[in-house]
Amino acid sequence: MQKENGFIILDDLKVSLTIPRDMGGEILKFYKGEELFFKSCNEAQAMSSLFGAEVCRELGIPVVSFGLAKYKGIIGTVATSFNPKHEKVVFLNQILNKYYKEVIEKKKHKSYITKAYDLYNLDDLSLALLYYYHDEKIVRYLMQKLYVFFFLQFILGDFDMHFENLAISNGDFVPLFDFDGCFKLDYYSNYRTISLEKTGHDLEKRRKPIDVLEEMIPLYGDLLKNMLDKLSSKEEILAKIETQLGVSIHPNLTRHIKYDEYLDELRECLKEKQNRFCPK
């Protein structure tokens, strides 16, 4: 595969599978030594994917490898498979669907679970995981990781980390693989909800991300602080990405990444809430 201005050119690879995308674009699946996935998106979304993956690496969170790519002149990202050994994988939305149909609907039990599957329903999610795995140790481990993913979503301003983007294999989450929904300018103040859900249901019940974050900080503020303390600045992370690409990144591709601003807001929120709940 050739490279051109930091973009991997995929034209010489044969497409083995095309997966239509509901929101426009598509995912193309290639084979050449290893399984590769090309996802069409604009340049800003492509840079978001590389940046989000690099943040994960700084935090020690498993993530697929991303690169900028072009296929037949179309811009996007190319990524390695999150399941290269083709092991059994189950997505969180499948676990919730199973629990919803076999337990909640069958017993007509009242529950906060909706088909939106908001992240806030972590109590319901833990019950669904226990129903699926029948192992409290596995469930505790998975739930601890979910809180890490929850705060990662705030760090990246990622509105698209829904339950179809989180999958489990052999009792652990597979590497994360979708970051092109990061760094929305109105994420904290105006965006309709923190995700880990699918849009279109119960919009009036959703809360702004900053409101949910403030509720979580008294309980999980130390976890968020530890994550924030590990992170480099935007410029330092971009320097790592430039090294990987072998080319300088044009400022226009990174102007939308309000990463340092997000971290400042998170640190201020964390400081204010911890002072309120833990007065000296």
Task: Give the helix/strand layout.
Blueprint: E1 2-4, E2 7-9, E3 15-20, E4 26-32, E5 34-40, H1 43-59, E6 66-71, E7 74-80, E8 90-91, H2 92-107, H3 122-133, H4 136-156, E9 167-169, E10 172-173, H5 209-229, H6 234-245, H7 259-277
Parallel strand pairs: 2-6
Antiparallel strand pairs: 1-2, 3-4, 4-5, 5-7, 6-7, 8-9, 9-10
Helix pairs in contact: 1-6, 2-3, 3-4, 4-5, 5-7
Shape: globular
* Tally of helical segments: 7
User: What's the mean pLDDT score?
Assistant: 81
% residues in beta strands? 15-25%
- Rg over CA atoms, rounded to whole Å, is 19 Å
Describe the structure.
- This protein has 7 helices and 10 strands.
- By secondary structure, it is an alpha+beta fold.
- The chain has a domain at 90-229.
- A hairpin with a 2-residue loop joins strand 1 (2-4) and strand 2 (7-9).
- Helix 2 crosses helix 3 (122-133), helix 4 (136-156) packs across helix 5 and helix 5 (209-229) crosses helix 7 (259-277).
